[in-house]
Structure to design on (124 residues):
């Protein structure tokens, strides 16, 4: 069978990336980041069980600039995943599927993630 004349499917770069697609990808990325964060949490617990010297070394890293940035990213991933999960619960109830509602929900996730992360780190 010769399919030389067959039209080719357009590449992804031709399509406009809607915010809902971006949020779907970021939901998965935030889940992976949270999984990696649990490894960091396990390291912290093992350091606490190993003794004061190891614990001080791990908390010293967490108090450094790189450690703080890592914790801020992990907390933003948590708040993003939480807000996105709540939207999925709303979708499970059958609401929010209209294009305008889905776009508004996506922007609400972005805004709530930024606000909750800032609130957490400013109050902490």
């Amino acid at each position: 069978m010769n399919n030389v004349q067959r039209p080719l499917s357009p590449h992804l770069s031709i399509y406009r990336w809607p915010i809902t697609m971006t949020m779907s990808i970021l939901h998965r990325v935030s889940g992976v980041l949270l999984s990696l964060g649990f490894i960091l949490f396990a390291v912290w617990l093992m350091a606490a069980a190993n003794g004061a010297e190891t614990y001080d070394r791990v908390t010293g890293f967490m108090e450094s600039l790189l450690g703080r940035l890592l914790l801020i990213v992990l907390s933003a991933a948590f708040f993003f995943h939480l807000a996105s999960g709540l939207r999925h619960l709303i979708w499970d109830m059958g609401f929010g599927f209209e294009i305008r509602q889905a776009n508004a929900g996506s922007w609400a996730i972005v805004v709530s993630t930024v606000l909750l992360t800032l609130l957490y780190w400013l109050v902490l």
Notes: The radius of gyration is 21 Å.
